[in-house]
Amino acid sequence: MPDNIKKIALLTSGGDASGMNAAIRATTRYAKYKSLEIIGFLDGFKGLINNNFIDLSSENVGGIIDRGGTILYTARSEEFKTEEGMQKAIANLKKNKIDGLIVIGGDGSFRGVHDLHIRGVKAVGIPGTIDNDIAGTDYSIGFDTALNVIISLISKIRDTAFSHDRLFVIEVMGRNSGMIAVHAGLAGAADYILIPEVQVDLVKIATKIKNHRPGKRHTLIVVAEGAAKASDVAASIKLLVGHEVRVSVLGYIQRGGSPSALDRLLSAEFSKKAVDLLLEGKSDYMTAIQGKEIVAVPLDYVLNNKKIVKKSIYELAHILS
Ligand code: F6P
Question: What is the pLDDT of residues 233-244, one digit of tens each?
């Protein structure tokens, strides 16, 4: 262990994701196991700029493994994107004698990690976003929990859609990515999935809906927020099909709730890896899972590549519908 790493800091940034608390707990306890001091900046990079932090201890991260959200709070900071904001953050890291920073967040947050790194700060990232849109890792913390929440909501909608012989358009999150929509669509048995990555012809979908297999009493269309608004899709489908269409925008419910077992396991392994990376003197990396391996991916790769939605999964969802 290089003896220059004695004290580290942690923050959560961007949209909260279930499992962030599990990662805060794991990072803190593993850091303590490695005899490191650790503090947590509050409100993401905003707290770093304002020097707003709490001491983290094995005790004060107790009882949070099953809580959604983040006890360190989170924010999207515009000031951090300015040179002035960045310099304030660096000054606070120096003032608090921080030897390494761990940021849990999405690719926007990792841009910040990289910017700090090129200014001499040792910093690494842990992927935490429900969108699972980060290149270099199969999963980000929060995705699995969000999927589980979504498929349970789709099931509830299916109950009412079946009972009333109705067509529903269900909008899910994901920002510019169809990752959530495709996986929730396959696991939730949607009939059609609309994602930004694939152009679709609503006329063709409407024709298929009209020619449903006999006995089918409902249609569920899952639309990624990055592809279209559910209300717009519903209006077009209504015109084409000629009967009522109901809309359900799942919204922020998708981001809450107790983390799944997978998200807790990922949180533990990513946290250990992130602390180990700093102890090895590494910076400008993101922890990742590739297959079954926990690895470190250079942020240069993460920030310059786009995560691809597997076409085979998208196609399979439609084959099985
Ligand atoms: O990145 C996570 C996410 O939930 C996206 O799916 C969504 O587009 C966005 O955050 C919403 O952001 P905000 O919390 O700022 O409204």
Answer: 999 999 999 888
Residue from 99, 131, 144, 263 carrying the catalytic annotation? 131
- The residue whose CA is least distant from atom 8 of ligand 1 is 175
Nearest to 72 by CA among 128, 139, 3, 150: 128
The answer to pTM > 0.85 is yes
Other CB atoms within a 10 A radius of the CB of residue 187 amount to: 14
Query: How confident is the model at residue 212, as a pLDDT?
Result: 78
Say if ligand 1 is within 6 A of residue 255 CB: yes
Whether 236 and 277 map to the same domain: the answer is no
Domain holding 172, by residue range, is 143-256
Query: Both 138 and 22 in a single domain?
Result: yes
Looking at residue 104, what is its pLDDT?
Answer: 98
Q: Which residues contact 239 (CB under 8 A, 6 or more apart)?
A: none
Q: Quick check: is 167 in a domain? A: yes
Q: What's the 130 CA to ligand 1 centre distance in angstroms?
A: 9
Residues of the chain with pLDDT under 70: 1-3
